[in-house]
Specification:
The protein has a three-stranded antiparallel sheet with strand order 1-3-2. It is of the alpha+beta class and 76 residues long. The relative contact order is 0.17. Helix 1 crosses helix 2 and helix 2 (34-41) crosses helix 3 (45-57). The mean pLDDT is 87. It has helices spanning 19-29, 34-41, 45-57; strands at residues 32-33, 61-66, 69-74. The protein is globular and about 40 Å long. The protein has a single domain (13-74), classed as Arc Repressor Mutant, subunit A (Orthogonal Bundle), CATH 1.10.10. It holds the Pfam family HTH_24. This is Helix-turn-helix domain-containing protein.
Length: 76
């Protein structure tokens, strides 16, 4: 519930899951689709997509196009 979540200094809600929890969900489902990660954590696909793209920019995960699907892997 959003009423239980903490806000950061700028007033934004703190993420429900840490980067490591997102990475672990990718690792468990590799190659992991965005929806698979969302289902693993029980959060919206859009939220997971946003977080995965941030992790991609930081070099923690890699993306790959397989057919029409985008999948994620943990960077080594």
């Amino acid at each position: 519930m959003s009423g239980d979540r903490e806000r950061d200094e700028s007033g934004q809600f703190e993420p429900e899951y840490t980067d490591e929890e997102i990475i672990q969900a990718v690792r468990l489902n590799e190659p992991a689709g965005t929806q698979e990660v969302a289902d693993e954590l029980g959060i919206a696909r859009q939220s997971v997509d946003y977080r995965l793209r941030k992790l991609l920019d930081q070099g923690h995960v890699e993306k790959q196009k397989i057919g029409n699907s985008l999948v994620w892997r943990v960077s080594e």
